[in-house]
């Protein structure tokens, strides 16, 4: 019955997002350096829009990430001439969008980061949501939409990625309502978790490296992987950052970081995490930002590291 009520994408968009104009195509964007929530929310929209419309649906952004192996197959599509709606997910500010939104007639932003730039014509910003995927899942739920297991799996991956399997403090009753709704769409949690959390000898070698080489400065701990280390460990730069929580859950560390050399861009990517100390303001001083307890930043040179550590020390001592 729900299918009969929602028999076209515009009706669905109107029902869910209050978008009334008609569009020839919908382009779905997300942020650079995508994580599971960026892909989860992007593909969670894509599979539903693709299934429920014959409109041209296009995915923008670099699609070479290793993380895509956890998702079902998709086609990125090609932009055509026509009236275009852009939907940007999980991206707090315009500069971080992986793609050009100037081609869109209208932009819908859906995000869960701290509000710094409401660049959309319509902005759905829920700062306290665990993930952007949670917001989208709850919108589908509210619209009583039956979605495919492909879409449900993508959104579930987004939620577990950003909440670290329902562990982080942004996990709320809403997170579990969203998860319950997604399970009702026919996904099997064990099938999603097994490939996601399966570890191998490469992981073991990275853990070994981190435990042997991490540096502690007061109650801040970090590891640094230069390009050679990444090659020796046989991991990508993104994977290098993804081990940041190897240093989590140690009573002595209030803030922990991963620093990885980004050789192609001649800079150093920093992933900052903390238990109680908000790190996003410090991250914003180093071309970054994000959430209070999980932010990203970029150093142009390692000489900036002392300054970063000094600023972190200051907020740790407040
Ligand atoms: P990362 O350490 O790169 O996984 O980033 C942690 C969180 O901060 C993610 O939610 C990112 O989307 C967000 N983030 C990373 N870099 C930035 C930035 N430059 N501006 C705003 N948010 C960011």
Would you mind describing this structure in some detail?
This protein is 38% helix and 18% strand. The protein has 318 residues and is an alpha/beta fold. A hairpin with a 2-residue loop joins strand 6 and strand 7. The protein starts with a helix and ends with a helix. It binds adenosine monophosphate (AMP). Adenosine monophosphate (AMP) binds at residues 31, 33, 35, 92, 96, 113, 241, 271, 288-291, 294-296.
What are the key terms here?
single chain, 318 residues, alpha/beta, six-stranded mixed β-sheet, five-stranded parallel β-sheet, binds adenosine monophosphate
Short description:
With 318 residues, the chain is of the alpha/beta class. The chain has helices at residues 2-5, 9-17, 36-52, 132-142, 149-163, 173-184, 189-197, 201-213, 227-233, 237-242, 280-284, 305-316; strands at 25-29, 56-59, 84-89, 106-111, 122-125, 215-217, 220-225, 255-262, 267-274, 289-290, 294-299. Adenosine monophosphate (AMP) binds next to strand 10 and strand 11.
DSSP strand count: 11
Q: So how many helices?
A: 12
Order of helices and strands: HHEHEEEEHHHHHEEHHEEHEEH
Which regions contain 5 or more consecutive residues with pLDDT less than 50? 1-9
Class derived from helix and strand content: alpha/beta
Q: Write down the overall mean pLDDT.
A: 93
Shape: globular
Note the gap between the termini. Answer: 57 Å
The radius of gyration computed from the alpha-carbon positions, rounded to a whole number of angstroms, is: 20 Å
The unique ligands bound to this protein are: adenosine monophosphate
């Amino acid at each position: 019955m729900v299918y009969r009520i929602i028999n076209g994408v515009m009706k669905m968009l109107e029902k869910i997002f209050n978008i009334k104009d008609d569009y020839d195509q919908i382009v779905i964007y997300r942020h650079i350096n995508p994580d599971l929530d960026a892909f989860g929310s992007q593909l969670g929209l894509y599979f539903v829009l693709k299934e429920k419309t014959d409109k041209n649906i296009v995915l923008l952004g670099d699609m070479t990430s290793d993380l895509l192996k956890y998702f079902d197959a998709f086609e990125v599509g090609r932009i055509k001439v026509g009236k275009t709606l852009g939907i940007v997910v999980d991206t707090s500010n315009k500069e971080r969008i992986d793609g050009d939104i100037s081609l869109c007639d209208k932009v819908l932003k859906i995000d869960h980061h701290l509000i710094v730039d409401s660049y959309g014509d319509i902005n759905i910003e829920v700062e306290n949501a665990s993930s952007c995927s949670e917001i989208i899942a709850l919108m589908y739920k509210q619209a009583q939409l039956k979605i495919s297991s492909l879409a449900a799996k993508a959104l579930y991956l987004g939620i577990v990625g950003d909440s670290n399997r329902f562990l982080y403090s942004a996990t709320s009753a809403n997170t579990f309502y969203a998860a319950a709704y997604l399970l009702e769409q026919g996904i099997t949690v064990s099938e999603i978790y097994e490939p996601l959390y399966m570890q191998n000898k490469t992981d073991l070698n990275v853990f070994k490296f981190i435990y042997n080489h991490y540096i502690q400065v007061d109650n801040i701990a970090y590891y640094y992987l230069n390009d050679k280390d990444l090659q020796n460990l046989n991991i990508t730069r993104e994977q290098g950052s993804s081990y940041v929580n190897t240093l989590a859950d140690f009573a002595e560390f209030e803030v922990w970081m991963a620093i990885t050399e980004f050789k192609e861009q001649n800079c150093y990517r920093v992933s900052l995490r903390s238990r109680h100390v908000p790190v996003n303001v410090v991250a914003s001083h180093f071309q970054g930002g994000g959430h209070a307890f999980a932010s990203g930043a970029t150093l142009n040179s390692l000489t900036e590291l002392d300054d970063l550590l000094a600023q972190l020390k200051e907020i740790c001592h407040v």
